[in-house]
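Margin note: ligand = alpha-L-arabinofuranose.
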Amino acid sequence: MKITRTMIKRILFFAAAGLAMAVQAQVDITIDTKNLGPKISPTHYGIFFEDINHAADGGLYAELIQNRSFEDDEAVPVHWTAVHNQKSQASIELTAEEPMNGAQRKSLRVIVTEAGGRNMAGVSNEGYWGIHVVKGREYKLSFWAKSDKKYKGTLKALLRTEDIISNLGEVDIPVKLDSKWKKYTATIKATGNDPKAVFDLITNTPGVFQLDVVSLFPPTFKGRENGMRPDLAHMLADMHPKFMRFPGGCFVEGQGSPENAFRWERTIGPIEERPGHKNVNWGYRTTDGMGFHEYLQLAEDLGAKPLYVVNVGIWHGGYTPLDSLQEWVDECMNALEYANGDVTTTYGALRAKNGHPEPFNIEYLEIGNENYNFFIDNNKDQSIDYPKRYKIFYDCIKAKYPDMHCIGNVESWATDNPSWRNEYPVEMVDEHYYRNPQWFAAHFNKYDTYDRSKYKVYVGEYAVTSECGKVGNLNAALGEAVYMMGMENNSDVVTLNSYAPIFVNENNVAWSPDMIRFNSERCMGTPSYYVQKLFPNNIGTRVVKTEWNYKLPESSEHSSMMKGVFASTTLDETTNELIIKVVNTGWGPTDGTINLRNGQAASATLERLSSADGNDENTMEESEKIVPRKGEIHMAQQGSMLLFEVPSYSVNIIRAKLK
Ligand code: AHR
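Resulting structure:
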């Protein structure tokens, strides 16, 4: 092998820095600190929330009782069972008789035929694949009850292990029931631990009574009533999302009937007044307990701008004809008034009544979800009359909210080059990409040549969905990271982006991969999650010109499915820090050198996400196998040179404070 001057220089630097210098691949990155590119969009990066895979019910929405309103099944009270011992007896049945209000069609009739003293009987709920009980935690219970024949007794609310061996906390609730529905509340303080506990409501007084909207909440994120599960909400908060898109996704559209779509007005107010709906797209019924108000509240709690996606009168399998579209337009305008109107407006007043007098201020609104599939579906089913629908909504929204950022749909499937194929005005379009890791890495430069004069791009859904292991491996994260660097570089055209979907309850997987996996007790991030967390926490205000030269040793072999090493830089003008991202997609261990032009670093840090193999994944058992870790970086030549390792499969974030 010929030893070049550069190699000698590198050997000397690595020796001075005390690093072993193997003859291996090398990347020389040159950053001209004075050559600044586009401003970084203040809306990089955001999150996409959809109730898919039990992301809301049985997930982020902290409710612990599954089928709390007894509406999940027409015939059987699923997730509920009668509970008794050898000396007591009870049975349960669904009933449509005397519902508590128009929203609740069914309730549960509990028939306790035999009970007394310590022999109790009643009903039991299994939660969402178990109820997570933690000693010392307080669980807030509420339920509604009535009895046709008058019932006086004490109901015991109990958390216990599934095998009935351990009592994990209980509370007695004296009740006096008659034909009027009455609400009861109580708190259970847990006395033990169990990730898969069950909930009982039992009595030693025989009789018949009806129950509805039986709800149990653990402490919630920021202590909100009807709020979010703290560990999952913290995973989102740690990402510092700049915006939050909701409520989907296909969840916006629904399937089979407009009744199965997200209809925001049915999702606000007291939980007992929310009918819920069939989430046919993803295979379960949703309570809509996480409703329009809760989405807006969550966005506010996360410090994210709300991005609401409205239905344009299209659901999977059907649509409202164009000449009857007004009801959908009204629904959208009412939603905007609820979120943005002052308290003197009808819906603004309703928001105040629901506990939030200040407007939530929706600034971003997407008109439809995936409703313009020009190549595979143009003017059929899911795309029927999309441009005309868009225009009707757009005109109406802009007339009242001229500053609203309206987002249009473009093709989400069957093309790598979606575009706005109609004459109507559009500021921003929503592109979706679900591809393999190679595709993402190969499209690092995708936006370099986009026409800047037309419209901005919101990459609203993207993720590696094939060749990515069981639940999402490091290769997936590497491919996405490269693509994200390309989006950052083109921040003048790609102004928003969000990975999709976020959550999956490991007990009910409809879509995989997802970046946060959880069960009743625990959660873990995939490597993609950590990239989605690293990037928003490490982004400056301007793109900085970055060039690199990647050299493989002559004898090198690599097994990566993606190509090479990638680098990009932003400058945080407020802190005068360079933030350099270097991704090695699996092309062997590499020595990295950063040469700064027109500037010197006063200090430098390195954070790295990596593992020995691109196929490596996190699991619930080993959830921190691939997480960001501090790495070593060395300065040379008075801070105009930085030396570091670039392991074969790695995302490296270097922060260099300039002198
Ligand atoms: O993110 C999962 C689904 O993918 C979304 O619901 C839909 O918009 C897309 O097709």
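The chain has eleven helices and 36 strands.
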